Each structure stands twice: as structure tokens, then as C-alpha cells.
Structure to design on (235 residues):
């Protein structure tokens, strides 16, 4: 079974500072994908960044980067130069391949971290 | 391009009543997902459709929950009868393919259900 753990219920950061949101995972699969989503108060889940288990380089998307440490089974999200609009709930998620080796898109989510950016 | 549409946005019912949620995916998206997000938790997949067929309903409480996607486009999720623990946000998502690229699963705004 897959499990995602986010141990920080809430985080605070000053505007323009960087912040790291923690995520650890547990899986027996060799091939898997790790995602981060942002959920603002409006409710929809917004895709931020993705890391494949075989990707050698850490993923980056603009101000978002993923600190992937495979041996430690961690996939922390780093947000640089925080903005007030970054205040939201952040979820780490995993997708595994099906038995046939093809992922069917099913995501397993962690509990989430509420990020508050102070001016 | 229009996003995933869901209605209603909010619903309050009493326990043992029935309720239905509607989802209209992005045009052309063959795969549709229903997730349940209980307060303080991450979303959990309830059911996944590919066109009008069920791909995965392993976590759907089938004694009270049902879902259909008869014409392979929009979908309805029903709860009958509702329990207090069904209070949650119900998120619908869609993707073009059964095995979507990482940034190609799109979520709707959700329906917030409160069971009293």
C-alpha cells in the first residue's frame, strides 16, 4: 500500500522568503510519481510540480522546486520568494503504476499543510 | 477552455436523506474521477470512469454510494442514505487519457456536503 505523510499541519513564512513543505512517502513500487498540488480557498486542486521516481534531477517549475531524496523517501516542496497569493493548502500526492505497468491516474494524497504568507 | 464544472457548490442535508452531485468534465476528457475530501485530510479516490465504464471503485462504499456516467460525458454521484461521516468536499476531476501526463488531471471546485 502507498502512504503519504505530511507532518506540518501549518507553516508560516514572511513574504519574499523561501519555505520548505515536508513530504515523506512509503511504497514498495520501483516506479512511481510524486506530485504537489495547491488548494486555495476556492477549492480546486492546482497542479504545481511533478517528480518521477527515475528522474535524476530535481524538478523545478518557476518558483517551485522539489527536493527529491529517494533513499530517504522524501519529496519536499520548496517555494522561493513567497507571495501573498501562495497562502493556501498544499498537498503531496503519489501515483503508482497499475499491475500492467501503466498508471491509471489514481492519486494518493497526504493530509496537507496550510501555508500562510505574512506581509 | 472551460474547466471541470460541479454542482451544487454547497449542500446541507439531514442524516438518512439522499443527495446527488453532478460533474461535467472538460470537453473531450474520457477519464473522470470522484474524490472525497474529509476536513483535515487529503482527497481519497472514490471511483474512476473511462468513458462510461468503471476503472476503479475499490474505495467506494457501495452500500450507500453510487455513481454513473451513462453517456460517457457528465457524471452523477449519489449518497443514499447519508451518514454524518459523509460530510466532506466531493471533488470531480477529469483527464484526456486513462494514463494522463502529470499536469493533465484537472479538478473542479468541489461540492461541500454537510450532513446534520
Amino acid at each position: 500500500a502507498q502512504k503519504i505523510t505530511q507532518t506540518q499541519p501549518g507553516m508560516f513564512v514572511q513574504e519574499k522568503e523561501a519555505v520548505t513543505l515536508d513530504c515523506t512517502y512509503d511504497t514498495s513500487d520501483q516506479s512511481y510519481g510524486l506530485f504537489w498540488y495547491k488548494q486555495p480557498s476556492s477549492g480546486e486542486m492546482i497542479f504545481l510540480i511533478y517528480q518521477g521516481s527515475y528522474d535524476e534531477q530535481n524538478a523545478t517549475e518557476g518558483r517551485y522546486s522539489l527536493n527529491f531524496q529517494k533513499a530517504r523517501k522524501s519529496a519536499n516542496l520548496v517555494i522561493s520568494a513567497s507571495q501573498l497569493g501562495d497562502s493556501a493548502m498544499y498537498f503531496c500526492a503519489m501515483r503508482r503504476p497499475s499491475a500492467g505497468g501503466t498508471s491509471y491516474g489514481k492519486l494518493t494524497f497526504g493530509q496537507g499543510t496550510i501555508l500562510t504568507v505574512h506581509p | 477552455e472551460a474547466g471541470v464544472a460541479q454542482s451544487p457548490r454547497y449542500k446541507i442535508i439531514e442524516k438518512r436523506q439522499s443527495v446527488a452531485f453532478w460533474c461535467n468534465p472538460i470537453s473531450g476528457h474520457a477519464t473522470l474521477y470522484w474524490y472525497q475530501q474529509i476536513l483535515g485530510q487529503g482527497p481519497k479516490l472514490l471511483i474512476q470512469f473511462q468513458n462510461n465504464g468503471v476503472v476503479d471503485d475499490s474505495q467506494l462504499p457501495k452500500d450507500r454510494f453510487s455513481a454513473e456516467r451513462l453517456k460517457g460525458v457528465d457524471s452523477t454521484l449519489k449518497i443514499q442514505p447519508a451518514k454524518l461521516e459523509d460530510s466532506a468536499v466531493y471533488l470531480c476531476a477529469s483527464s484526456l487519457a486513462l494514463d494522463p501526463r502529470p499536469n493533465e488531471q484537472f479538478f473542479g471546485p468541489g461540492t461541500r456536503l454537510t450532513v446534520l
Q: What stands out?
A: Chain B is about 0% helix and 50% strand. Chain B touches chain A at residues 3-4, 31, 33, 40-45, 48, 55-56, 89, 91, 93, 95, 98-100, 102-103, 105, 107-110, 112 (CB under 8 Å).
